[in-house]
Amino acid sequence: MSNSITYPQVNWVHTFRGEKYDLWCIQMKSIFISQGLWDLVQNGYEKPKDATEEASWDTTKKNTYIENQRRDHYALSLIYRGLDEVVLPRELAVLSHFHIIKEQRLPRKLE
């Protein structure tokens, strides 16, 4: 398994400025599909319950988990790149609160 993300670089992400959310979602969905990230964005990925469970995983499962973490952060970076500098701090505050409440599970639903 490779240690680097090999997805084609996305040079342009439409900026969401607080209006036309439906249009922005359609564009982001298209980017996620083209990058092979849509299933991950919609469904997430398997995470260990704790360090003991992770230690019990075989090498293939651990490598898949590590690669999915990278893909997840790549998708999140695309979302962040698509948020206006006024919208981003507001969204980060919401995500931080949600993150604490949902035990480190970020919202994933973009339709």
Structure overview:
It comes from Saponaria officinalis. This is DUF4219 domain-containing protein. The termini are far apart. It is built from five helices and no strands. The chain has about 110 residues and is mainly α. The protein is elongated. The longest helix is centred in the middle third of the chain and has 23 residues, at about 60-80. About 5% of the residues are buried.
List the helices and strands and how they pair.
Blueprint: H1 21-34, H2 38-43, H3 51-56, H4 59-81, H5 87-101
List keywords for this structure.
111 residues, mainly alpha, 58% helix, elongated
Briefly say what this structure is.
With 111 residues, the protein is mostly helical.
Largest sheet: none
Shape: elongated
Helical segment count: 5
Distance between the termini: 31 Å
**H/E element order:** HHHHH
Residues in β-strands, percent: under 5%
Residue-averaged pLDDT: 78
Helix content: 55-70%
How large, in whole angstroms, is the Cα Rg?
A: 15 Å
Q: Please tally the β strands and state the result.
A: 0
* Structural class estimated from helices and strands: mainly alpha
The poorly predicted ranges are: 97-107
